[in-house]
Design goal:
This protein is an alpha+beta fold. The chain has 4 helices and 9 strands, in the order βαββαββαβαβββ.
């Protein structure tokens, strides 16, 4: 599966790594694996990657940069797929949410995690102790803010960026 992701700055990745060291047996994201998913590029038909990218670029045409802010640590305790709990950095971004909604008009939302269920976040770790995970909710840190000027097309199978698109000013 492919997705359209927001690259996270080094300060966010470093914060996620630091929090991950406090989680004991949880499966922590490694360096370079921290992303912020804007939208998974899934369709009802068997589109090729190039067709998916072309459709996404049409939606993104003229899309301005938008602000993103990491504000705290939270936990998903019951996730629709994969291991829980999931510790994550909470993200506030009306621009990101609006873009996600526009992309959901073109690409089918993934049940339970997109559309109305979309919670912008940067995953820190999966699994491990729920008590340890919940204990990180009150971790103090200065909010991290940045302007998103570029998005990446991400190949989940190969765990890497395939291409990117700049958002015009």
């Amino acid at each position: 599966m492919y997705s359209l992701n927001v690259p996270v700055p080094g300060t966010v990745a470093a914060l996620a790594r630091d929090l991950g060291t406090r989680l004991g047996t949880a499966s922590v994201r490694r360096r370079g694996e921290h992303t912020l998913v804007c939208k998974r590029l899934d369709t009802d038909d068997a589109a090729t990657y190039h067709e998916l990218e072309a459709r996404a670029r049409e939606v993104l045409a003229g899309e301005p940069p938008f602000a993103v802010r990491v504000t705290g640590v939270d936990v998903f305790t019951d996730v629709p797929r994969g291991e829980s709990p999931v510790v994550y950095l909470a993200v506030e971004s009306p621009g990101l949410v609006a873009l996600h909604e526009r992309l959901c008009e073109v690409f089918r939302p993934v049940d339970e995690i997109e559309g109305e269920g979309y919670v912008p976040h940067v995953t820190v770790a999966r699994g491990g102790s729920i008590e340890r995970a919940a204990g990180l909710r009150d971790t103090p840190f200065d909010p991290v803010e940045w302007s998103v000027e570029r998005l990446e097309f991400w190949d989940a199978e190969h765990d890497q960026s395939v291409s990117s698109v700049s958002l015009p000013h």
